[in-house]
Design goal:
The chain has 202 residues and is mainly alpha-helical. It contains 10 helices and no strands. α4 packs antiparallel against α8 and α6 packs antiparallel against α7.
Length: 202
């Protein structure tokens, strides 16, 4: 992004403003993103993240080279989509991993995120050189949509596992199930927790 701006004649001042806005979009919305995940669940927020990053890719691909405002908007949206994806994805991992392996799983995921970022940084220059900046942004936007099916599949697997463990209210474990998820929903009032309470009541 920096090289793209400089290559098209923009000064270091403009470049700094655009990058600062992008970084702000990546981190400032975190408290609000967490509230959204608690309120609506990680699947809708992950879907929103994918759509926002796709829009960012389209804007960046079609922005005129002299339109700093359009590129700034694209990078702010990219940062916002990244933030929503990270928060919803972290919630997904925390919810899906067993308590005894949760910290280790989260560490492995964080390492994967870092390696993916490093790999994307290295490959992006090659893509721009071999094709174009527009190709890079469009490919990134399309790849971002993979968040949606991955989050949906993970949630379905988690709910099915809960159904196997506590199949019905007639089960001798149903009371423990309701009690466990009720405590969880009070500590983390997410849609997933409320869904488990409904599941236990079937």
């Amino acid at each position: 992004r920096i090289r793209y701006l400089e290559h098209n004649g923009h000064g270091i001042g403009i470049t700094g403003v655009v990058m600062a806005a992008h970084v702000a979009g990546m981190f400032l919305p975190s408290p609000f993103s967490g509230w959204l995940v608690d309120r609506f669940g990680y699947v809708p927020i992950a879907a929103g993240a994918g759509v926002i990053m796709l829009v960012a890719g389209l804007l960046a691909a079609w922005a005129p080279v002299d339109s700093v405002g359009t590129l700034l908007l694209a990078l702010v949206l990219l940062g916002l989509g990244w933030n929503l994806g990270l928060v919803s994805g972290t919630t997904l991992v925390t919810d899906a991993a067993p308590l005894e392996t949760s910290a280790r799983t989260q560490g492995v995921v964080n390492l994967g995120v870092a390696l993916a970022g490093a790999g994307a940084g290295l490959s992006s220059g090659l893509i721009v050189t071999a094709a174009s900046y527009a190709t890079l942004t469009l490919a990134g936007g399309v790849l971002a949509l993979l968040i949606v099916p991955i989050a949906a599949i993970a949630r379905r697997s988690r709910v099915e596992a809960a159904a196997i463990r506590y199949p019905s209210m007639d089960s001798p474990h149903s009371g423990a199930c309701v009690q466990a998820v009720r405590v969880e929903s009070e500590e983390v009032p997410s849609r997933v927790s409320r869904a488990r309470i409904e599941l236990c009541g079937r």
